Structure formats: structure tokens, C-alpha cells
Amino acid sequence: MSTFTQRLMDAPRHRVIGLALGGLVMAQVVTGTALAHADGPPSDAIAKVASAEAHGEPRSVSKVTAEQVLRLAESQVGISEDSAGGGTKFQAWYMASPRAQQTIARDTGKISDYANAAWCDMFVSWVGEQLGIQDTMGQDAYTVQHAKWFEAQGRWGTAPKPGAVVFFDWNGGGIDGIDHVGFVVQDNGDGTIKTVEGNTGNGVVEIRTRPTYQVAGYGYPSYAAA
């Protein structure tokens, strides 16, 4: 049994799980370009990224602020999966992305396995792609590996900063037990944080309030000063 297949059988719903519905997969796949056109970043973010590239700066040297990331993430609130757990533009984008080929090579399986898979991390990755900061946001569909990527980059910690990528372990464990991911909107100062998350509740993008004891850690993209 492949590693990917074992994860599909064993992982909780908020990890990267799910099976495709055969021929329906191709109908769901759209290109990243089309998604960017339909639901692209704010115009000021596009201008800043374009300006950075025009001056020879790598896109990972971000001209995008945490505020712009949160604005885009919050603009997706209300988007919902279908009854099979799929049908979102985040899953369709991920399946069409080069990164999906890389994670399949790492985890085994096939691209269509992502069609109805848990999409919380695909949502986070999509936001980074739309704003051109994928090199500093990271991209994955498997929350544990995404968190370990931040750790390997030296951008992992315990402070709930606005715009940080927050990784949850519902049992209060460490990085290997991560179940879910989203963005920190703010630290409420009372042992809770305000977040924006994909694939939460009944498979929807929502604003949530979470206790910090459920947080395994935070990944810190490199943002421009506000």
C-alpha cells in the first residue's frame, strides 16, 4: 500500500484526504491563470509585485503585506465545498499546479486524489500564489509537511502574528500531529486568536476564534512592512 493511500485511509478529515470521482475530476480542473483572472489579488498588490519584478527583485522578497494577504483570504469567506468534499477552486487550482506533481512524487498516489481531499492547506497555498509570494508562503496540501517546510526555513515559532500561517493540532501536540491550517487575523489577547480558514465548519471558508492551546505552531511568510 502506498504512503499516500495509507494517509487517505488513516488521516483525519482536516488532513489531506479524499478520493476523486473519476471523470468528474477533469471538469473541475482549471488553470491557475484562469483563477487569477477571475479571483485575482487586489490591484495594488499586483502593482507592487510587478514593480519588484521590474527592478529585478525575486518575488520571495515580498512587496506584499500581511494586510493584503488577509484581505484576499477574507474575501473568500463563504466559499463552500460540494457534497463530496470537493468542487472548490482551491482544489482545482492545486491539481493543475506544478506543485501537485511534486507532492504526488513525494507522497505517491495520483493527482485526482486531491479532487475531494481536505483543502485547508490548498486554500493557504492558493492565497500565496495569487499574490505572487509562493516562495515565502510555501505550497502544499499536507499540513505536516508544510509546517516542516517553515521550520526548515527558520520561519517557525510560537507568536500569533497577523498574517502568520497557523497550524493546529486538536490534541495539543506537536508538528507531527498537525490536523488543520489557516491564517492568523489577530491575537485576541485572552488566550484565543481570530483566524480565517478554508475547509472549516462544514467545509467552508470562515472566520473563526480558536484557543491557542490547539496551536502546534506558526509559520511566518516574509511580508513587506505595512
UniProtKB/TrEMBL annotation:
PROSITE patterns: CHAP. InterPro entries: CHAP_dom (IPR007921), Papain-like_cys_pep_sf (IPR038765). Residues 95-222 form the Peptidase C51 domain. This is CHAP domain-containing protein. It comes from Sphaerisporangium aureirubrum. The lineage of its organism: Bacteria, Bacillati, Actinomycetota, Actinomycetes, Streptosporangiales.
